[in-house]
Automatic annotation (TrEMBL):
<protein>
    <submittedName>
        <fullName>Polysaccharide pyruvyl transferase family protein WcaK</fullName>
    </submittedName>
</protein>
<keyword id="KW-0808">Transferase</keyword>
<dbReference type="Pfam" id="PF04230">
    <property type="entry name" value="PS_pyruv_trans"/>
</dbReference>
<feature type="domain" description="Polysaccharide pyruvyl transferase">
    <location>
        <begin position="79"/>
        <end position="319"/>
    </location>
</feature>
<dbReference type="GO" id="GO:0016740">
    <property type="term" value="F:transferase activity"/>
</dbReference>
<dbReference type="InterPro" id="IPR007345">
    <property type="entry name" value="Polysacch_pyruvyl_Trfase"/>
</dbReference>
């Protein structure tokens, strides 16, 4: 059987952000299925920054190639050499980083790697992700050029598809959904009747600390730390509820981003709370979340872990990507921390908790749409693999 080498650009096997890790492991799982349909054997080059944490595990078909910013313009080095080895470049852009809202340096970093691949003549696939916005004319022009040059651009939600259409990018676009819906996990063991209702709350360390500026950088309407304390008090007042604080960005080095140390501080403030472990991998995190009875949180991939393991969930949005992903699937239980008051957010959470059976039915219906969308993505990737080898 022929081997196809796939450069997984902006995929990471050791990111502190377990959402990025979930994208990586899930996309590899989907691409294995596509390769089987194409009759080829995949070999993956996971290409991104080197983070301090240990890698999530070992997979025989995944090779880790780390690069630095200084390597991006070079004609040789870890980035260029990795791209040169690949039959195809599969770029997920970290899920939502192909935009200029994070500043020109980050935009050029993400865009220049696409330029590298295209100049080498490699087929460039943009895996399911949020694209845009592009607030500057030059960024929009550069982005449009690379989008039109790509073999396939896969949107993960309807707002992204509409944005691409506005840019004039329509001929090579597929609308799918977030690949992390396919992240493997260990299903929970059956629990005896009459046990506590296990509720999970993901607290974003970044939002709790006010963002990188530490002054409500993301423009939340409600005062986030007080909102979190209000949620905790509500669930501690419920009968037979066991509250778990679940981190999904866990970093020993970057305190402002770290969910785990915020959870530990809250557990000291509110005795009786259970703090989730420092997870070794996104799979371990999803397996933990899958054992809960209700979940809410501001890290989107923590809520996707709940949703895709059929745990009733209320996503606590702070950007359009939440409503894009969940709303496109017909799941409208998100609350919006940028536009909703604390009372409105609490009402949404309380309604979701009290109506968990209805949320479960809505998730079951939405997951049928997930399968349809990701199956189309798998089929198109199989077709591109046949062409590339």
């Amino acid at each position: 059987m022929r081997t196809i080498t796939l450069a997984l650009l902006w995929h990471s096997m050791n990111s502190d952000n377990l959402g990025v890790g979930a994208l990586t492991l899930s996309n590899a799982e989907i691409l294995r299925s596509a390769a089987a349909k194409a009759g080829v054997k995949p070999h993956f080059l996971a290409m991104s920054w080197q983070d301090p944490r240990p890698e999530y595990g070992e997979w025989d078909d995944i090779e880790n190639l780390h690069f630095r910013t200084r390597h991006i313009p070079l004609p040789s080095g870890p980035l260029a050499n990795g791209l040169r080895r690949a039959h195809m470049v599969v770029d997920i852009g970290g899920g939502d980083s192909f935009t200029d809202i994070y500043g020109p340096k980050r935009f050029f970093t993400i865009w220049a790697t696409k330029l590298h691949a295209l100049r080498m003549g490699k087929p460039l696939i943009l895996s399911p992700q949020t694209v845009g916005p592009f607030d500057t004319g030059w960024a929009k022009a550069l982005a449009k050029w690379s989008l039109k040059k790509s073999k396939l651009v896969v949107s993960r939600d309807a707002p992204t598809t509409a944005f691409l259409t506005e840019m004039g990018v329509t001929e090579n676009v597929l609308e799918a959904t977030d690949v992390a819906m396919r992240l493997p996990y260990d299903p929970p063991a059956p629990r005896p009747e009459g046990g506590p209702i296990k509720v999970g709350l993901n607290v974003s360390g970044l939002l709790f600390n006010g963002g990188y500026t530490k002054s409500n950088q993301f423009g939340l309407k409600a005062e986030y730390p007080e909102l979190i304390r209000r949620i905790i008090r509500f669930f501690q007042d419920q009968e037979n509820v066991e509250l778990h604080l679940v981190g999904h960005v866990q970093s020993h080095e970057i305190a402002v981003e770290d969910d785990h140390r915020v959870n530990e501080a809250l557990a000291e403030e509110f005795p009786g709370i259970i703090v989730s472990p420092f997870f070794k991998s996104p799979i371990e995190a999803k397996s933990y979340i899958a054992g809960l009875d209700f979940f809410m949180g501001a890290r989107m991939h923590a809520t996707i872990a709940a949703f895709s393991s059929r745990v009733p969930v209320v996503p606590m949005a702070y950007s359009r990507k939440f409503r894009g992903v969940f709303g496109t699937l017909g799941y409208d239980r998100s609350v919006d921390c940028k536009s909703d008051t604390a009372d409105e957010i609490m009402a949404g959470i309380e309604a979701g908790f009290n109506d968990r059976a209805a949320l479960s039915a809505e998730i079951d219906a939405a997951l049928t749409r997930v399968d349809e969308r990701l199956d189309k993505y798998t089929d198109l990737m199989a077709e591109e693999m046949r062409k590339a080898v």
